[in-house]
Write a structure and sequence with these properties.
The chain has one domain (about 5-515): Up-down Bundle (Sodium/glucose cotransporter). The protein has 18 helices and 4 strands. The chain has helices at about 5-30, 35-40, 45-75, 75-105, 115-120, 125-160, 165-210, 215-225, 260-270, 280-285, 295-320, 335-345, 345-385, 390-410, 420-445, 450-470, 485-500, 505-515; strands spanning about 235, 245-250, 250, 255-260. It is globular. The N and C termini lie far apart (about 55 Å).
């Protein structure tokens, strides 16, 4: 290990020590009871609410996945995805946040998403709670795996160590931190990590642009690649038999660009629909201390997201000029941010920028693991199988669940060639289609009933798997992002089944009207 690598390691260790310190500070309060551990006692301020929501949402995907897409095939995919996410972020905060904060209090002070849906429909047999908890376990395990892949790629690239060993080290660190501090520690550290992430992005884009000879030089280089800088076209790297991009005379070779249709645009914009079903974001709406503070949080979150996404896309485009042949596979392209950082900055500063990737990964994976653990321990174990479980038993089961989920996530992340963007896109579609339509109908359509809720969740999740694994293989118009058709199908299921079955009870309708009128006491 040379001097530069040691300096990078020192910087990252300092950062990790700060994160652990935050966990220690909040550990005592977090272990009071399950509400403190899973929702922080509804005590988050507007800045922490906004920044922690976005940091936990974006993960290492923002610093590695999105720049990797732009580096590999140009502007179109990355731009339309980013635009969909920006619009989805704003609409989620505008439409969902206040109503959900209010409704979660009315619904027996719900502290998890499955609990909210269950209480919203006043169910006795907890069928909704079980189904919602099960899907959260499935999709968040996939999500956690994407974070572990990020850790593995980061550490193996920086230190030249085996990918699997580095991935496991990263997973263990995330697990220990999540076990320690709970929701408050996670949210407080996510606030810090959101700041680190955006600083890292801005620093690299500024230094990289100067090194590339200015924005004009970056754009001129991108224009020379067929389809690379088009909104309605897609660059197509020319690959050899091993799946690596062909290089001739020191330049990467591209085939003729492919068309980018209106359907493709709608497909990528559909990423924005996912926000309506993202537990890690929706929980922040439930956890803020006052409903009135959500307006400020919306502004903060939207500004952060727009800046971060725009810079991340530009970094990928800029990387094609500075390091055109550094990454010759789709999976390898996701290391462009690391390459730019280590080559453009002094080692110690590069280490802190690398901490930005670690920040993004930790901020998401701890959220994923914590929410998944709560889904099992609070909603399935206590909510269904052992209703008289004590707080101590719930906390114990939660920690055991964390260990099991982390182990499964590690197994999923063993493949070094895993593409972070692809893993995240599947989990994102799963949550978006399973919970997104149900969240909107639960908040805004009084006629929604329990049967419709179950049909929407099962239909949405089932369509994600069916479209991804079967229908998309047909190609053509069927090769769209699975979230869009699954979201539509889930919505249809909710409406049709709700209308064909018994209307909600008078008590459920009274809850709905009270929430709509704002006649709910603050928690």
């Amino acid at each position: 290990m040379d001097g530069n690598t040691i300096q990078i390691l020192i910087a990252m260790v300092i950062y990790m020590a700060i994160v652990i310190g935050i966990g220690v500070i909040y550990a005592r309060r977090a272990n009071k009871n399950s509400e403190e551990y899973f929702l922080g006692g509804r005590s988050l301020g507007p800045w922490v609410t906004a920044m922690s929501a976005e940091a936990s949402d974006m993960s290492g995907w923002l610093l590695m996945g999105l720049p990797g897409v732009a580096y590999w095939c140009g502007l179109a995919d990355a731009f339309w995805t980013a635009l969909g996410l920006a619009v989805g972020t704003y609409l989620n905060w505008l439409i969902v946040s206040k109503r959900l904060r209010r409704y979660s209090v009315r619904a027996n002070n719900s502290i998890t998403l499955p609990e909210f849906f269950s209480n919203r429909f006043r169910e006795n047999k907890k069928t909704i709670m079980f189904i919602a908890g099960a899907f959260i376990l499935v999709f968040f395990t996939v999500y956690a795996a994407s974070c572990f892949v990020t850790c593995g790629k980061l550490f193996s690239t920086l230190f030249g160590a085996p990918y699997i060993a580095m991935m496991i080290v990263g997973a263990i660190f995330v697990l220990l931190y999540t076990l320690l501090g709970g929701f408050l520690a996670e949210s407080a550290s996510d606030f810090m990590q959101a700041i680190v992430m955006i600083i890292a992005l801005v620093v690299i884009v500024v230094i990289g642009t100067v090194k590339a000879g200015g924005i004009g030089a970056v754009i001129d280089n991108a224009k020379e690649i067929p389809g690379f800088l088009e909104f309605f076209g897609l660059a197509t790297p020319s690959l050899d038999a091993n799946g690596q991009q062909i290089v001739e005379a020191g330049k990467p070779i591209f085939d003729a660009p492919s068309d980018y249709s209106l359907l493709s645009i709608c497909s990528m914009m559909a990423w924005g629909l996912g926000y309506f079903g993202m537990p890690q974001v929706l929980l922040r709406f439930m956890a803020i201390r006052k409903e009135d503070e959500l307006k400020r949080s919306r502004r903060i979150a939207t500004v952060w997201v727009v800046i971060s996404l725009a810079v991340a896309v530009f970094i990928g485009i800029m990387g094609r000029q500075l390091f055109p042949t550094a990454h010759l596979t789709k999976g390898g392209a996701e290391n462009i941010f690391i390459t730019l950082s280590t080559s453009s900055l002094p080692a110690l500063l590069a280490g802190f920028v690398m901490a930005g990737i670690l920040a993004a990964t930790i901020s998401s994976s701890d959220s994923y693991l914590l929410i998944a653990a709560s889904a099992f321990s609070k909603n399935i174990f206590q909510g269904i199988f052992k209703k008289d479980a004590t707080e101590k038993q719930v906390m114990k089961v939660s920690r055991i669940t964390l260990l099991v989920l982390a182990l499964i996530g590690i197994i999923f992340a063993l493949d070094e060639e895993s593409v972070i963007f692809d893993i995240v896109s599947f989990a994102w579609s799963g949550f978006g289609a399973t919970f997104g339509p149900l969240m909107l109908f639960s908040l805004f359509w009084k006629r929604t009933n329990k049967a419709g809720a179950i049909a929407g969740m099962v239909g949405g999740a089932g369509m994600v798997f069916l479209w991804k694994l079967v229908i998309s293989k047909l190609g053509g118009v069927f090769a769209i992002y699975e979230l869009l058709p699954a979201f539509i199908f889930s919505s249809i299921c909710i409406v049709v089944v709700s209308l064909l079955t018994k209307a909600p009870s008078k008590e459920i309708e009274e809850d709905f009207e009270a929430v709509r009128s704002g006649n709910v006491e603050e928690a």
